[in-house]
Structures are given as C-alpha cells and as structure tokens.
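Hi support team,

I've been running sequence recovery on a batch of backbones for a student project. Most finish fine, but this one hangs at about 90% for roughly twenty minutes before it completes. I'm not sure whether the input is malformed or the queue is just slow. I've pasted the structure tokens below so you can try to reproduce it. Let me know if you need the job ID as well.

Thanks,
M.K.
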C-alpha cells in the first residue's frame, strides 16, 4: 500500500558544519583531535566549505525541499568579540544558493563545537557562557536571519554535555557532576535568551532545539528496570526539556535506535565508548558498525511520547543508521522505508509531524569514531573527495517524488 504523506510535508536531509566543512582550526574539537582523543583528525572533512555547490546539486536532484545544516561559531567569532565578516558572507552565499534552488533552510547555531577561546576561558559550566552565546546569536540572526526558515539554537545538547562533563570523552574532558548540572542550566538559559533575541529580530521565526530522542527499553527485573528506563528518558529529555518548554515553537527529534538497557553488577565503571554507565549497559548489535540496534517502531513510540509531553509541532530533524563503505546499501533502504512507515502511522493517528530529515546527505566525520561509519546517501571517497550516490539515494528520491513509501 502506498502510504502518502501530507502535501506540505517537508522532505529533507541533514549535515552539520564541523562534520562536513573541513578546516575548522579555531574550534575546540580541532584541538581535541590533535591531542589524539578521537579516531581521526577531521582535516578537510568533506570540504563542503568549498564544494557546497556540488552538494547542493545532489540535494536538488534528490528533490528535497528542506536542508538542515549548521554554522560554525568558531569560524564566525574566531576571537572573543571579533566577528569575521568574510565568514558571514560565505554563509550568506551558501544559504542563498539553497534559496535559489527552492530549498528551505533549517540552521543550527551550536552543533557540539565551540571556539577554542570560549572553551579555554569559559565553558558551559560558567555563567558568562549565556551572554557570550547570546551575543553570537544576535549577530548571526541580524546578518543571516533573513535566509533562515527554521532556527535551531542547540543540537542535542545533552549528548556533548554528558560526554564532556560526565564521561570525559568530549571537550572539556571533565568528569564532574556539579559542573555538568551547571552546564545544563546555562545551556537552557542560553537557549531561552536566544529564543527571545531571535523573535525580537524576526517575529515570525520558528525557533527550537533538537533532542536525541532514542527509545529505551529495560531488560531484567521488572519494576526496577522500568524505572531505569524512565530515568534514562528523564536524563535525556526532561532535564533540559522542562527548563525550556515555554521557549520552543517546535520540537526537533533525532531518532536513531533502540537503547536496550541491562544491569550488570560486575561492571560499575563509566565507559561511554562501550556504552557502560555505573553498571548499566546498553546492549549492542555486533553486526552494526557502531553496534547500534535498529528499531523502526521506536520512532513511532518516540513521536507519541514527545507529542504528549510537549504538545507542539514536531520535526524529525535526524534519522539514519551507519553502514560500512560501499555503494550497495540495502540496509539503508530498508531503514528509510521502515522508519517512514512508522512516521506515516503516527501522522495517521493525528500526531503533528511536519517534516523528516534523513541523516545524512553525505558520509562525514562521525566525531570520536572518525571516518569509518558511513551515514551518507552519497558516498565520499576521502582520498579524492569524489562523491558518488548510493542506491539509497535513488530510493529516497523515489519516495520524495511519490510523497510516500
Ligand atoms: C548527531 C550527529 C551524529 C549522528 C550520528 C546525532 O546524534 O546530531 O552529529 O553524527 O547523531 O551519530
């Protein structure tokens, strides 16, 4: 059966600046990589900074009407309080090129990376971070806001805050719960202040945040583990979501996988790379390059939960799965179709889902895991930077053309 999506549904793909642009040498992540704390140095990444037109050709041929991307704070404000007009102009060119192709822009202001000066002198655990971020938001909204259709202040902030202040594996590399809770409050405050600033400059703007909204299930001894599942959601969603709930015009959901939680007394260490936290382990799928468990129904469950919690329009801001190199990717094709079927079911049941972004347009830097996991509809040859569409690219193209699966 053909499952048709609403006429005004937004079909998109997503990428993020640090993961594709290359050459972001003012950023804290650049330093992190140089110190050998990630599997690869990003280097030129996909060189989107220079090759954006080529990638926009792929977007246009795919038929999307939405592109989710981000801007690099470290590039725009390379020194504290000094904004680069050249860089802002370059982003204007990039967004104008999208507009020329009739593609709506969803732009994220902070996608896990900060200017090195910010990280060294402040960091999110310091109160000053709020006004420093707000100044950057004000500047870019004034300069680029006319070319932005959907504003996203932060991408999944709980992930880098957890990894950076509890796990110690992202900058600033702390394991300090006190700083962690302070950082969460400051990010919430920075979002709320930014929300107001953006609306002052562009009253009709749609402003929100994205959440990593995976589905959790707990195995084992009943009540205890069900409350653990609840705690996982509280930690990932409510802790921040409750502080910003009056400052969102929509909810952005990034859904990837099932987190099946097990408790093992023998394993009390914290090891984010092995997904072990104080005895709680997230089960792994050995066949998946990132050991993730694919679970299409989870997107439906998450949509129901998020719509009940926030009562706001929802955009699926990311959904995808990693594979290994190669152009033949039946698992990605099945992934897209199965997840979209469940999104369709949610819409049929009255959930207000406005758009879907597949992650990602092209293979890109997968943070700590470097270039091995492949998420793209388009394969990147990292030696030559040549781009080649995978089979899934053409399947997604068909889905968009038919408005459904
Ligand atoms: C992040 C991306 C990341 C993707 C795959 C999302 O949580 O927003 O930056 O590449 O997951 O891990």
């Amino acid at each position: 059966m053909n499952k048709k999506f609403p006429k005004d549904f937004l079909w998109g793909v997503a990428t993020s600046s640090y993961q594709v642009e290359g050459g972001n040498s003012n950023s804290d992540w650049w330093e992190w990589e140089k110190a050998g704390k990630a599997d690869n140095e990003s280097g030129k990444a996909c060189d989107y900074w220079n090759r954006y037109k080529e990638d926009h050709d792929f977007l246009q041929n795919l038929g999307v009407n939405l592109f989710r991307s981000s801007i690099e704070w470290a590039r725009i404000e390379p020194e504290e309080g000094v904004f680069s007009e050249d860089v802002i102009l370059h982003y204007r060119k990039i967004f104008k090129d999208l507009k020329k192709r009739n593609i709506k822009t969803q732009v994220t202001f902070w996608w896990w990376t900060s200017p090195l000066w910010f990280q060294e002198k402040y960091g999110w655990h310091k109160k000053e971070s709020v006004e420093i971020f707000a100044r950057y938001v004000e500047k870019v909204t004034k300069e680029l806001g006319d070319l932005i259709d959907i504003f996203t202040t932060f991408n999944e902030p709980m992930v880098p805050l957890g990894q950076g202040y509890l796990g110690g594996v992202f900058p600033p590399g702390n394991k300090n719960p006190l700083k962690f809770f302070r950082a969460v409050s400051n990010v919430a405050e920075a979002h709320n202040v930014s929300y107001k600033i953006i609306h002052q400059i562009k009253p009709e703007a749609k402003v929100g945040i994205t959440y990593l909204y995976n589905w959790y299930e707990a195995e084992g001894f009943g009540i205890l583990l069900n409350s653990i599942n609840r705690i996982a959601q509280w930690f990932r969603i409510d802790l921040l979501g409750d502080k910003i709930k009056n400052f969102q015009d929509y909810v952005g959901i990034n859904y990837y996988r099932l987190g099946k939680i097990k408790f093992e007394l023998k394993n009390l260490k914290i090891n984010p790379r092995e997904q072990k936290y104080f005895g709680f382990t997230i089960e792994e799928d050995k066949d998946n390059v990132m050991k993730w468990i694919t679970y299409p129904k989870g997107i439906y469950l998450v949509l129901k939960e998020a719509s009940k919690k926030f009562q706001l329009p929802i955009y699926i801001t990311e959904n995808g799965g990693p594979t290994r190199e190669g152009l033949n990717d039946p698992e990605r094709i099945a992934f897209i179709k199965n997840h979209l079927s469940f999104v369709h079911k949610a819409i049929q049941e009255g959930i207000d889902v406005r758009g879907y972004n597949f992650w990602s347009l092209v293979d890109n830097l997968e943070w700590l895991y470097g270039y091995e996991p492949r998420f793209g509809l388009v394969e990147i040859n990292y030696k030559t930077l040549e781009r080649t569409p995978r089979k899934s690219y053409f399947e997604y193209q068909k889905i968009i053309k038919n408005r459904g699966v």
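--
Follow-up from support: It reproduced on our side and the slowdown came from queue contention, not your input. The radius of gyration is 20 Å. No action needed from you.
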